[in-house]
Amino acid sequence: MTELQDRQPAGDAIGAVAAPLEVRTAMYKMMVEMRGFEKRAYDLFLQGLVKGTSHLGLGQEAVAAGFGAAMLPSDYTFATYRGHNHTLARGAPMAAVMAELMGRQAGLMAGKGGSMHLTSVEHRMMGSYAIVGAHLTIANGAAWSSKLRHAGEVAVCFFGDGTTNIGAFHEALNLAAVWKLPVVFVCENNRWMEYTPISSVTAVEHPAADRARAYGLDPVLVDGNDADQTYGAARAAIEHARSGGGPALVEAETYRHGGHSRADPGKYRPDEEVEAWLARDPIPRYRTRLLGAGVDEAVLVRIEEEAQAAVDAAAREAEASPPPDLSLVEADLWADGGSSWRS
Asked: Most buried in the list 81, 218, 255, 283, measured by CB within 10 Å?
């Protein structure tokens, strides 16, 4: 098993893929933009402008950034309801994502889907799924399509630790292994399900990695708060799947900074646990590493300033957009919304 390798906040990750500095600075840019976006989304919720529920990915940015940097534009992403970061990582416009959260017509789905259903086929973001585990089997379908067409596309499917105790997880891994599908399953293990620690309901220590052998897969466990490690794991897993080697399963240990959803203060988590993980925040940790690798601080400051400006502009554009026009009610439906289909 690949053990967690770099527990320190500085220094290069042992065994991580030595990505070019331009890739590493691009990952830093993605993480800073994701963090700014999620903070602004929460602020807009407090103002009553974000509609419905939402699940923030604060603290989990390194997983989305590492995989986003390793994927090709033609690859597919499938995510959970905590999918804002993964949507941005595929290049979806920040303003369109923000507008979707606010239920505005300029949103990715014209404001009809909201936070839990972000989708952008144009960017190969094939949906955020509210039903736990449902999208793993759908990711298999996309991978099967790619294999039949000899298209070279890889489906990358993100899910939380709680999904590993859902039947669809085991069914999807088994079928993907039997058919050698080009799919990469990525468990974002943030240690907590909704309000329950995963350790209290799971027989093994690592809910994804420790089960890989049962499906003939290599167990891969990485530090999900380390962008270099997630990028290295992503590169290896995606190349393995794309070359015909079949599926891969990666468990990335990470931690959400807040509660399960926007209305959850997360007070059930032990204070010492929260403090220990906040000290391993992936963004300042990676900033320190880039400085140590020779990146000029002025470059990082510019990235941070541009990211904040982009978030500000996205929020203004989203808020200026009107609610969806009533003419859109019957758009994007399998049926026309009427009764003519009935016998």
From this structure: 255
